[in-house]
Amino acid sequence: MTAALDEVSVRSAALLWLQKVTLGGTVPVTREQLANDFHVAGQRFPLVDRGRGIRKPAGWRAALSIMTAQGRPYADEEGPDGLHRYKLRRDQGGTAENEALRVAMRDRVPLIWFYGLESGVFQAIFPVHLVGEESALDQFVLALTPDQLTIAPNSPVEDTLRRYLIAETKRRLHQPVFASQVMLAYETRCAVCALHPRELLDAAHIIPDNLPRGLPVVPNGLALCKIHHAAYDQNILGIRPDCIIEIHHRLLDELDGPMLRHGLQEHHARPLMQLPRRRADQPDRDRLEERYAQFRAA
Questions:
Q1: What are phi and psi of 189, to 5 degrees?
Q2: What are the residue boundaries of the structural domains of the chain, listed by start?
Q3: Residue range 135-190, pLDDT digits in tens
Q4: CB–CB of 63/97 below 8 Å?
Q5: What separation in angstroms does the CA of 157 have from each of 7, 83, 151, 164?
Q6: What does the pLDDT look like over 18-43, one tens digit per residue?
């Protein structure tokens, strides 16, 4: 098998492994997992390098993965073309890694992007592609979706198309990062009932993300199971600023089996069962109050 084919097969296997481990990009991964748990032909094959943000395996022409340290995704600024940017290494030791990114860009090789959530924990965004280099700004241009691959970097785009491209970035980057940060803060448990399986949980916004105060930050989020998320969105379930649950009066006296009784009615006037340990991650009272007013008016 040639080096090029081996590079292709290992990259493909890494993407499939991440798809399984992250449940399609919804569950974070740790640095320990990325360094130790992926194997090729029975041998450990790290997906990240210690102390380096760009992973270029020995003998490879193109990079395999890129990494961004813990940050705030809502502070990211897409370019006027609606595409995201990734900074290259400025130090002299990064020459080989930067060149490996250029190879990936020229050959349209899919990369894995590990976005830091907290120390040693990452959101895996994959696959992504490099579609341009802005040397004066020490950065590459990233495409996160197939539609973004069709846009030439820095090209003028219609306002409606740019809004669409930014929405695609939100879907592929900001929303999964927000969801993982919320799950970490709530220890992957529903705030209302403490249900634990990740597949049954959502990261709900207190203030919707299409409003000015609906930022993708943990204090604007709640970990909710599918039932309680739907009830919250439909103003069947409300949460007071003191984190006490209320069920809309029209449902309190209904008789409709155990799901309604145990899933909703019995939570009325009870406090949330699960809250973040860190005070900075707990629900913002002002946002809760604003959302609770909508519930009361419904």
A1: -140, 145
A2: 3-180, 186-297
A3: 888 889 999 999 999 988 988 888 888 888 888 988 899 899 999 999 999 999 99
A4: yes
A5: 35, 11, 8, 11
A6: 999 999 999 999 999 999 999 999 99
Beta strands 43-44 and 54-55 are: unpaired
CB 172 within 8 A of CB 125: yes
In the prediction, which pLDDT does 295 show? 96
Strand partners, 5: none
CA distance 125 to 111: 9
Residue 36, SS3?
Answer: helix
What would the two tokens of residue 213 be? 């105060």
For residue 68 the two structure tokens come to: 């961004």
Query: How far is Cα 269 from Cα 278, in angstroms, rounded to an integer?
Result: 24
d(CA 271, CA 238): 11
Separation between Cα atoms, residue 22 and residue 47, nearest integer Å: 14
Bridge partners, residue 29, by sequence:
122
